[in-house]
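NNP family nitrate/nitrite transporter-like MFS transporter
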Amino acid sequence: MDGRATRLQLLSFATIPMRNFHFAWMAFFVCFFAWFAVAPLMPVIRDELGLTRDQIANINIAAVCVTIFVRLIIGPLCDRFGARLAYTWLLALGAIPVIAISFSQSYEAFLFWRLCIGAIGGSFVITQFHTSVMFAPNIVGTANATSAGWGNAGGGATQAIMPLLLTALVSLGIEQALGWRIALFVPGIMMLVMAVVYYRCASDTPFGNLSDPRVRLAAGQAQRSKGRESFMLAARDYRVWLLFVTYGACFGVELTIHNLAAIYFVDRFGLSVTSAGLYVGCFGLLALFARALGGLASDRIAKGSGLQGRVNLLFALILAEGLGLLAFAETVSPIHALVVLLIFGLFTHMACGATYAVMPFVNRKAMGGVAGIIGAGGNMGAVAAGFLVKGSASTQTALFTLGVIVLVCSVCAIAVRFTQAQKDEEQRLYEEAIAARAAGSASRALPEGAAS
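Tokens:
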């Protein structure tokens, strides 16, 4: 399997694939934490800067808008330079706007830096690319979903931690207007530390870094499409654009909830900033297991139903997500809203994991391009949802309309098709991975020296 791992040993750092798995999700966790560190503090920031509802909508759109373009670019860059350098530079440069936004004194300055922070969202593509090249077909869906899910949990953690951090600073006698600014230094510093760790400890392939020509040859990278070629090869495949839409319908909704749910709970149900942050944090923390559950389910279904089983599962999950979102928009109490939020959030996160359990099989020669375009779809969905919220009479109306749109988008999942030749080839690779895993288990079970 070209050095790729055939099992996911979550407590292990012993192999190159597992070490890179852990570095990938930790880097994504830090990036996601920093990306949405502002969101739970928005009720405080709104009051200090005197922001209007339209201005807040613009800020939420800005937070996810630039990510579309970064994700389109970062995927081919992974194909060209490898995940290690791509992640290192994204972490280092992304820390700048995270820290700079704390110095904002006006709506315009805040909007600009929030727009720049959106570039951090490109980290998702690198994470999925990195785990895709480290794991074999029998486990790649689970690996992708787990790394993304654990990383996405940073969005839930920041919803809970940032308000608590602000409260701690205020309790020390620091004014609230200064406290939120100091609090935003924390995620920026975390990103700089992670950049150093990734550069020093991560590797591009199971054999080492692509800077070594021997590693490129051993890993089969010599024939991989590079840069613009990777993007164009992916862009010509209709299945990529169908998954672009489905990912917009699940991850786009996830981003939208992260951006507006705290204010929604404060304004609709009268909760405090801290309580609202904890409520929304529960939604984000579902990613700890729900994304992985979506990838695991996809891998299990693939054993009997192949690639088509993967896309059928994706359809069912997005359909359930849309129905749950409709129910969430109609809730009348905070507890009821929390329960429904967690139920539809489960399907949302699982759908995200199931999407990237399909992604590695679309085009192996342009995996970075495929990952980038599909990932950009998530942010395109969030931008579209942002404009929907801005143009709606109320957030509740926008959420209901969004639920209807998600239901329609679910049809794109079952429209994804694979040729019989591709199904046969992927089934062969899947069976090889299963056989390699079984052989590895058998060799470990033998007494010392018995294998000779």
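The mean pLDDT is 88.
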